[in-house]
Design goal:
heterotrimer; A alpha/beta; B alpha+beta; C alpha+beta; A: five-stranded antiparallel β-sheet; 11 strands; C: alpha+beta; six-stranded mixed barrel
Chain lengths: 236, 383, 403
């Protein structure tokens, strides 16, 4: 169960030290409730990538607090020990491109994560198939990624992100290469999945096609986040 | 347990890898020291061997005559050439007489003188005799003294001895003249028999020493082959056996011949036995003297005995024997052997029975621990 | 957990197997090199084994008869035969020369061996045949090794005589790898000594012109001298077999002391052949072996590195989604070992079935060499992966997230 979603307060990230120090993130506050899909918008150089890396538990912030569900994963210098396990079990990634492992079939691509967590293969595959069903790509379970269309691949990627039922999904420009119809389809899926699995979803994007669909948007500029009310349009 | 998706790709991969590994295992087990050795078996048969002796020899003439002078001199003329046939008594050539003719002439003159001397002494003796008789009669009549009669008698005796001396002198001179004439005739080189000239060793004008051959001739069609046999393999060589001769110039053609005699003196250093083999029919054209010939002498056929090919015989740990396959394993059986023939078969006296199988050919040296594989012929050897 | 390495191999198996085969040929060449060295040593050993001798008696102070030329009189064997501990003696001659089939131009380099006549089992005789029979006649028969290319029944020309091939052998070679041809001793002595017709005529002419040999008062002198020039009373060595129960070194020592000849036991001959005769070639091959191993290592490292580089994106993704470093290292190392495994299999097969039969000298591939080679290949694969592993570990998972 995901608990209270994602909560970040006062996050700061400083590179370097002394006179050459630069604060990529100065003051970041975010909270996303379970089931909610928010957008994260910012120009390049705004610290967006840095924030994403902190959210993804890839890098360690310099100060502030990060909470995932009920767990504090970072607090002013202290961080949770096993970042990798954290990424594997509690954060779901959806990238710009599907980035499926080309030499594993669709089922194994998704089942890889639970297998890495130590689940027996049969059980992991079962778990994977559930997600594939949810994303309506179960009929491609045995195919290799190269045999899928772009949209199918993206859905498999989303299934992979969700397979461990993580409390948060980080989607980095998931719709950038897609046309309007497909882009909206992806956003709709993300919303469906978010509600179904009670996952908080943060979508980093600058795609004008989907920005109107968000109910809440975080802007980031010069390392500081600003919250904004979104339009919340429907996905037609 | 990894679940293999049975796709074509996987099957193709298996189709490549499995034969590869199979081949690998095959290579590991079948080559190198672990591999079994191919062997060919032969059966011990009952055969009567015809042993034979083999030797090589040269064609020689039975009688070679070297004609030359009995004293040093110069060759004056040579009337014959190599390859000519000559008759007995024919003059082949002559030495330079030098002063011999003159010496004969001188000797003739001496002979005449001796003859004249003989006549003279004869006359003197006749006269002395007459005188002796006369004074004998006068002595009887009392008209001569005893002393004179003695003197006349003594004169007769002297004349008689002188006659004897002159006679012997004549004989001596005659003999000397005969000697010179004999020498003169010796200057002539005469063929002792009908023959064929085989070499001219000195041309006219050459000085030769006594005993040096000027011309050589052989009695034609009396050729034989002087054959040498290895002592080890000459057992059973005896006169009277029949032989087959192959001349080097006529390789493949065989002539039938006969062993004339076995030389009593063997060559110690080279360890060979010498024998002379004569032709039953001299081949036409006559083969040149000195040509090489291969001679095979067949000995009487022996009784039937178990025989084994000589390729099957090996010397292991000081014993002669053969390899046999007993219950799939190799085993070395010592044997004792008898006589061998020229085709490679050897009699077995002890150790094997007729019908036993022995290893005749093998790819490698054998020992009791080797794994074996029986084949018809060794692979890699084209027939 | 599934095997990522296995899945990757199966996915692009064509490329993988193709690469492995290329590597395999390289490994095959390396194995063949080792086999060539062993073959050379085996040639030397086989030569000694096949002669059937316990001792070799040669000219004093020579390393003969194989490493150096040696000439002794051919009747000395009698004196040795009577010594205590000696069971059997046999004269033998060796002459490496070109021999051709009669009526053909092409000739073959062989070692003509003159064997003493006798029964099978005489020292010097080929101990086993693969076809035909042993020599029975005292002249003009030969037993040839199949490596010479001569066949049963063919006529071959050695110097001035023709010989019929009556038997064939296998693995009867000189220490150089030249095939041996066995002929009767007397023919071999003649071959060793008598040259061709032109040379003989020349020699006779010179003898006849020498006034010392051509005295008018002695007409037969010239013939006698020429005859003596035409005989050859020498052989190269005497092979000795010892009675069971006697120590070879003892018997050798007594021959050395009383006959003042040089005698070598089997061990000493082996040392001469292996230690002196083939030492240079052995060093050359050892050097090649080392170079090939280094080249193989470099190539394997390069291949693994390239394979890993091609997967950098996937490795970044795997790292990001939480794959342990250990798993990623395992992916690389497993692939490397699989490459080495298939490469070794291909290498061993190609060395045995392709390279060894074609190579003009004897290639002996021993199982021990294969085992050592296999271990070496696997070790090289593991070590060569280190570079690729370092690259993989350095990958920043954040790269998967666009910047």
């Amino acid at each position: 169960m995901t608990g209270k979603g994602v909560r970040i307060s006062g996050l700061r990230k400083r590179y370097g030290s002394g006179d050459t120090a630069v604060d990529a993130l100065k003051m970041v506050n975010m909270h996303v409730a379970p089931g909610e899909v928010v957008g994260l918008i910012g120009p390049s150089g705004s610290g967006k990538s840095t924030l994403l890396k902190c959210l993804g538990a890839v890098i360690e912030p310099t100060a502030g607090q990060m909470m995932l569900g009920d767990d504090v994963i970072y607090h002013d210098g202290w961080k949770i020990k096993d970042l990798r396990a954290l990424r594997r079990d509690r954060i779901g990634f959806v990238f710009q491109a599907p980035y499926l492992i080309p030499f594993l079939d669709v089922t194994d691509n998704v089942a890889l994560l639970p297998m890495l967590a130590g689940k027996p293969n049969a059980e992991a595959r079962q778990q994977a198939i559930e997600l594939l069903k949810a994303l309506d790509v179960e009929h491609r379970a045995k195919a290799m990624p190269s045999q899928l269309s772009g949209g199918e691949q993206q859905r498999v990627a989303i299934a992979r992100g969700l397979v461990n039922r993580p409390p948060v999904i980080l989607a980095d420009e998931p719709t950038a290469p897609l046309d309007s119809e497909r882009a909206l389809a992806v956003i709709r899926i993300l919303n469906d999945m978010a509600q179904r699995f009670e996952t908080a979803v943060i979508v980093v994007t600058h795609d004008e096609k989907i920005i109107p669909t968000f109910k809440r948007i975080y802007h980031i500029r010069d390392g500081v986040t600003y919250e904004e009310e979104g339009q919340g349009r429907s996905f037609e | 347990m990894k679940k293999l998706p049975f796709q074509i790709r996987t099957l193709a991969l298996i189709a490549v890898l499995v034969p590869l590994f199979a081949l690998f295992v095959y290579v590991a087990l079948r080559s190198g020291p672990l591999a079994p050795v191919s062997i060919v078996l032969a059966t011990v048969e009952n055969k009567s061997l015809s042993p034979a002796l083999f030797g090589i020899g040269t064609i020689e003439a039975r009688y070679t005559y070297k004609i030359g002078p009995t004293f040093a001199g110069r060759v004056e003329r040579l009337d014959v050439h190599v390859g000519e046939h000559v008759k007995a008594g024919q003059a082949l050539g002559g030495m330079d007489p030098v002063d011999l003719d003159e010496r004969i002439k001188a000797q003739n003159a001496t002979l005449k003188r001796a003859t004249a001397l003989l006549s003279e002494t004869q006359v003197r003796k006749d006269y002395a005799k007459t005188q002796a008789l006369r004074y004998e009669q006068l002595l009887k009549a009392g008209f001569a003294s005893e002393e004179i009669a003695d003197t006349k008698r003594q004169k007769l005796l002297v004349a008689e001895t002188a006659l004897t001396a002159a006679r012997e002198e004549l004989s001596r001179v005659r003999a000397e003249r005969e000697a010179l004439e004999a020498q003169r005739s010796n200057l002539s080189l005469i063929a002792p028999v009908d023959g064929l000239i085989i070499s001219r060793n000195a041309d006219p004008g050459t000085t030769v020493v006594a005993g040096q051959a000027v011309v050589e001739l052989i009695a034609p069609y009396s050729l034989w082959v002087n054959v040498r046999f290895d002592q080890i393999r000459a057992r059973g060589l005896a006169a009277g056996l029949s032989a087959l001769i192959t001349l080097r110039s006529q390789a493949g053609e065989l002539q039938t011949e006969r062993v004339l005699r076995v030389e009593p003196l063997a060559d110690v250093v080279i360890e060979e036995v010498l024998a002379k083999v004569v032709f039953d029919h001299i081949p036409d054209p006559m083969p040149p003297i000195g040509e090489l010939a291969e001679v095979t002498i067949t000995l009487p056929t022996l009784a039937e005995t178990p025989v084994v090919p000589n390729a099957a015989i090996h010397h292991i740990d000081g014993k002669l024997g053969v390899w046999q396959v007993i219950n799939g394993d190799l085993r070395f059986t010592p044997v004792s052997l008898g006589i061998a023939d020229l085709e490679g078969l050897v009699q077995v006296q002890e150790g094997l029975k007729i019908g036993d199988q022995v290893v005749i050919y093998s790819e490698n040296a054998l020992n009791e621990r080797r794994r074996i594989r029986i084949v018809d012929h060794i692979p890699g050897v084209t027939q | 957990m599934i095997s990522l390495a296995g899945r990757d191999i199966m996915h692009s198996w064509g490329k993988f197997v193709f690469t492995a085969m290329g590597l395999g040929l390289l490994i095959g060449v390396t194995l063949s090199m080792a086999g060539i060295y062993r073959g050379m040593v085996d040639d030397a050993k086989v030569l000694l084994d096949n002669s059937g001798a316990d001792l070799w008696v040669v000219q004093k102070d020579t390393l003969g008869p194989y490493a150096e030329s040696s000439s002794i009189y051919d009747d000395i064997w009698r004196e040795i035969r009577g010594m205590p501990g000696v069971k059997q003696t046999a004269n033998i001659t060796y002459l490496t020369m070109q021999v051709r089939k009669s009526k053909e131009e092409r000739d073959v380099r062989v070692m003509v061996t003159g064997v003493t006549p006798g029964e099978a089992g005489t020292p010097g005789w080929p101990p086993y045949l693969v076809a035909g029979r042993q020599i029975t006649r005292s002249h003009y028969e030969a037993v040839a090794d199949i490596a010479s290319g001569f066949k049963l029944g063919e006529h071959i020309q050695i110097r001035r005589n023709q010989y019929t091939v009556v038997g064939l052998t296998r693995r009867m070679v000189s220490s150089n790898g030249d095939p041996m041809v066995f002929i009767p001793l007397k023919d071999a002595q003649e071959a060793q000594f008598l040259k061709d017709n032109d040379a003989i005529r020349e020699q006779r002419r010179r003898t006849a012109e020498n006034p010392a040999f051509n005295q008018p008062g002695m007409p037969s002198l010239l013939d006698t001298v020429i005859a003596s020039q035409s005989t050859n009373p020498y052989v190269n060595a005497i092979l000795v077999r010892i009675e069971t129960g006697h120590a070879p070194e003892e018997v050798a020592e007594s021959i050395r002391r009383w006959k003042r000849l040089t005698v070598y036991t089997r061990d000493q001959m082996e040392e001469i052949l292996v230690g002196k005769l083939i030492a240079t070639s052995a060093k050359q091959i050892a050097m090649f072996l080392v170079i090939l191993s280094i080249v193989s290592s470099v190539i394997v490292a390069f291949i693994i590195y390239t394979l890993t580089l091609g997967k950098i994106r996937e490795i970044a993704v795997l790292k990001l989604i939480g794959t342990k470093n250990r798993t990623i290292i395992g992916l690389i190392v497993q692939q490397s070992i699989a490459l080495g495994l298939i490469g070794f299999v291909v290498g061993k097969i190609s060395a045995t079935l392709l390279m060894a039969p074609i190579f003009p000298k004897y290639v002996l591939l021993e199982p021990l060499d294969s085992v050592l080679g296999f271990i070496a290949v696997i070790m090289i694969c593991i070590l060569s992966s280190i570079i690729a592993i370092r690259v993989a570990l350095k990958v920043d998972p954040a790269e998967a997230i666009g910047g």
